[in-house]
Amino acid sequence: MQEFNVVISGFDHYEDIDTNPSAEVCAALESRGVEPSEDSAGIVHINVTSVLIPLSFQNAWPTLRDAIDRVHPDMVLATGLKTHAHSVALERCATNLIDASRPDADNIQPRRAPIDPDGPAAYWTRLPLRTILHDFAEQNIPATLSSDAGTFVCNSLFYRLLDWNSMQSTALSGFLSFPKMNDGGKYGSGLSLEQMIAAAQDVIRATADYAIHPVSDEI
């Protein structure tokens, strides 16, 4: 049976956010695991390792890279929080720009600066977004495509991750943004924790299928 190793990251405490859904989802996935799809059952076993990332321009990527170097994953899924979002957001690209509207955890606030002065303007996700959106629709998980992950630490981490991924032959990686948590009520903002856990499991499951049975998934 093929082993499919996954690193999933979530951010540590956010200012004014009592419970960070990305951290909660990561903890849940490491304890619950992810079952493969019907198409891959008996073919692949999915192993999940989670890591908490500091909200720090300087330390976010080194923390994730340490986990990557330990696990040697087939997939890396970074997750974060979009406080004004109402659904799960699949991030399409990471841009080579830092423009922080507030300080990070180290009280650093870079403005209008490139992440890598010698790097490309943007990198595109390596995840099969079309398949993932289809799976979300089947499970009634509200979701949207997002053009980028902003200009704060989420985007900086995503850019560094995709830069690393550009030098890998088989690894797949991407970024998933969550809204704030609520009880899943129809008129509340955000989503329930169980919906977000299911979303992350769908992303991993669909990506494992894509790695085993690669097909065109342009979107």
TrEMBL record:
GO molecular function, one term: pyroglutamyl-peptidase activity
GO BP term (any one): proteolysis
The EC number(s) this enzyme carries: 3.4.19.3
Gene3D superfamilies, alphabetized: Peptidase C15, pyroglutamyl peptidase I-like (3.40.630.20)
InterPro entries per record: Peptidase_C15 (IPR000816), Peptidase_C15-like (IPR016125), Peptidase_C15-like_sf (IPR036440), PGPEP1_Cys_AS (IPR033694)
GO CC entries: cytosol
Reaction(s) catalysed (UniProt annotation): Release of an N-terminal pyroglutamyl group from a polypeptide, the second amino acid generally not being Pro
Catalytic residues (positions): 154
Superkingdom of source: Bacteria
Keywords: Cytoplasm, Hydrolase, Protease, Thiol protease
First-tier enzyme category under EC: hydrolase
Pfam families, per database record: Peptidase_C15 (PF01470)
Family: Belongs to the peptidase C15 family.
Name of this chain's protein: Pyroglutamyl-peptidase I
Species the sequence originates in: Bifidobacterium tissieri
Lineage: Bacteria, Bacillati, Actinomycetota, Actinomycetes, Bifidobacteriales
